[in-house]
Amino acid sequence: DGEKHIITFQDPTAKFICTFYWDENGDGELSYDEAAAVADLGIAFKGSSILVFNELKNFTGLTTIADKAFSGCVSLAEVSLPEQIRVIGSSTFSGCANLKELVIPDNVEEIGESTFSGCEGLIIYCRPTTKPKIYYNSNSTFPLYSGITIYVPSKSYNSYIQYNYPAGSGASSDNWYYYRNYIEPYDFE
């Protein structure tokens, strides 16, 4: 009965890091309850060789993905963010050159500076109907001229690309205008 409460990891490095930091009962496994109790990832994964971390969606106690949480994870190809995330920190995925797709959950309210720096050709499915605050300056949230595509809800598309008085360097939902050439409407189900 205990085995069905244990997370099965696709990537052994992801499992090793998770059990090293958050295996509270010392059984060498991570249960769904142990994952749900994690409130901060810190930089436990920074620069690691993880390839896949879709099990992150089970870390339901997270509301923020820490600054630089996955920065330098050059091999990271897949990650699934928990639905309740509200903030994706600065440089969270910077240098994740193999990350090709990412879904930004509905509840995200802010995405930090340089979050996707070095993520060439990234496809982002940005689900929030209300535009999260993002950055546009020398440390922009999304890398310009990198082949990035950002899909947003069709019903919010005009809001995302609408020109408002630009906020510029600070976090603002108005900064989406600067990325209008990379934004496409998408029907999320």
What descriptors fit this protein?
189 residues, alpha/beta, four-stranded parallel β-sheet, three-stranded parallel β-sheet, 3 helices, 9 strands, elongated
Order of helices and strands: HHEEEEEEEEHE
- Quickly count the helices: 3
How large is the radius of gyration? Answer: 17 Å
Q: What average pLDDT do the residues reach?
A: 93
Order of strands across the main sheet: 5-7-8-9
Low-confidence stretches: none
**Major sheet: size, sense and barrel closure?**
4 strands, parallel
Q: Give the proportion of residues in helices.
A: 10-25%
Count of DSSP E strands?
9
The computed structural class is alpha/beta
Which geometry do the CA atoms define?
Answer: elongated
- How much of the sequence lies in strands comes to 5-15%
Termini separation (Å)? Answer: 34 Å
Write up what this structure looks like:
With 189 residues, the chain is of the alpha/beta class. It has three helices and nine strands, in the order H-H-E-E-E-E-E-E-E-E-H-E. The strands form three sheets. The protein has a four-stranded parallel sheet with strand order 5-7-8-9. A three-stranded parallel sheet has the order 2-4-6, with no helix packed on it. Helix 3 (157-161) links the parallel strand 8 (149-153) and strand 9.
Ordered list of secondary-structure elements with their pairings:
Elements: H1 12-22, H2 32-36, E1 52-53, E2 64-65, E3 78-79, E4 87-88, E5 101-104, E6 110-111, E7 123-126, E8 149-153, H3 157-161, E9 183-186
Parallel strand pairs: 1-3, 2-4, 4-6, 5-7, 7-8, 8-9
